[in-house]
DNA sequence: ATATTAGTCTATCTAATTGGTAGATTATAT
DNA sequence: ATATAATCTACCAATTAGATAGACTAATAT
């Protein structure tokens, strides 16, 4: 399950996506409009900045802003920053590989084999879904509901 | 990521699968041969029993045994017992549904929409992979390694 | 019967993680 | 200079993960 941290990050990033190239947005504004605990959000945004997703500006007229286009920021990148590994086991993680301390032989571990498949299936979606894609989905979902479609 | 609990459970269940219909196996035997902490394993096995996966017998000649065929026990069932939800968000969980406390509208939440896709992709594998499948994979992996294949 | 065996129940315990807050500090625009 | 707003340091409480100890109960062998 995604942590609150990750959900907050995604919410904030979606809000920043809607204001892409419209100048910095205040933490307090993000916090209020998106209903995110301010101090916690602070830490999250700082994290996203240090990982190269956001830029920031201090002083009046300052705030946070996307450093890349919403279409170039993938869900997988966000999750990895705030939650770490996406895979079921660390032994198949592409970005956080670690040997399972007790595993006698990785090459013949059937769980690892399945975990690999699950990882590929998940990443196939998460590395292809950008913030822009999510905004698009949102508008589609809203339209769909208005027209009473499912 | 899967918890240790889940990994231990899978290890133990695979061992019990190899001895399917050969009578009960001692906790202590499982613990030693599979290198699992005994007391922790005790709790896990009891859990699996209460969830209808294992049977048990007390007294001498007793132990734990599979109550269904290895081909009928799916990875998804095991993970759900020991780790809970498989999905990224509780709002798309088939077995542990819960509303996201802060979500203003589930029907137009784009994260939920993506989480649904990821859930389907993961479950497509996990509900189709049985303990028997894992044993089969294991032997295949062992053969493959002997012959030097990849 | 009773001693032995082996699962079950209750109760802890520690360490790590999660979610969150407070307050001082530093950079910047005016 | 001063107000603004991000950044840094330092906590803190609650929960979960991982694990152990010991009493209790049921079944079996002798």
Brief overview, please?
The structure is a homodimer of 150-residue chains. Helix content of chain A is 51%, strand content 5%.
CATH architecture of the largest domain in chain A: Orthogonal Bundle
Instruction: Outline the low-pLDDT stretches of chain A.
Output: none
Largest interface: A-B, 38 and 38 residues
Total number of domains of chain A: 2
Q: According to CATH, what is the class of the largest domain in chain A?
A: Mainly Alpha
Order of helix and strand elements from N to C terminus of chain A: HHHEEHHH
Number of helices of chain A: 6
Q: Main beta sheet of chain A: strand number and arrangement?
A: 2 strands, antiparallel
Quote the CATH topology of the largest domain in chain A: Arc Repressor Mutant, subunit A
Features:
homodimer, 150 residues, mainly alpha, Arc Repressor Mutant, subunit A, 2 domains, two-stranded antiparallel ribbon, 6 helices, 2 strands, DNA-binding
Tell me what the structure shows.
Two copies of one chain form a homodimer. The first copy, chain A, is mainly α and 150 residues long. The first copy, chain A, has two domains: 4-66, Arc Repressor Mutant, subunit A; 74-129, no CATH class. Chain A has six helices and two strands. Chain A has a two-stranded antiparallel ribbon with strand order 1-2. In chain A, strand 1 (54-57) and strand 2 form a beta hairpin. The first copy, chain A, is globular and about 55 Å long. The model of chain A has no long low-confidence stretch (mean pLDDT 95). Chain A binds chain B through residues 1-2, 7, 10, 14, 35, 75, 84-85, 87-90, 100, 102, 107-111, 113-115, 117-118, 121-122, 124-126, 129, 134-135, 137-138, 141-142, 145, and chain B through 1-2, 7, 10, 14, 35, 75, 84-85, 87-90, 100, 102, 107-111, 113-115, 117-118, 121-122, 124-126, 129, 134-135, 137-138, 141-142, 145. The first copy, chain A, binds a DNA duplex (30 and 30 nucleotides) through residues 3-5, 24, 26-28, 37-40, 42-43, 45-46, 49, 56-64.
């Amino acid at each position: 399950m995604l942590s609150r941290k990750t959900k907050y990050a995604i919410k904030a990033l979606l809000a920043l996506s809607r204001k892409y190239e419209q100048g910095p947005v205040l933490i307090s504004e993000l916090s209020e409009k998106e209903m995110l605990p301010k101090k916690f959000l602070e830490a999250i945004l700082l994290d996203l900045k240090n990982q190269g997703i956001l830029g920031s500006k201090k002083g009046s007229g300052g705030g946070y802003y996307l450093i890349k286009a919403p279409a170039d920021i993938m869900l997988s990148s966000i999750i990895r920053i705030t939650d770490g590994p996406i895979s079921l086991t660390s032994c198949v993680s592409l970005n956080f590989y670690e040997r399972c301390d007790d595993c006698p032989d990785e090459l013949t571990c059937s769980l690892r084999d399945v975990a690999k498949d699950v990882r590929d299936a998940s990443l196939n979606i998460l590395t292809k879904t950008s913030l822009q894609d999510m905004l698009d989905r949102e508008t589609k979902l809203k339209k769909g509901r208005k027209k009473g479609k499912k």
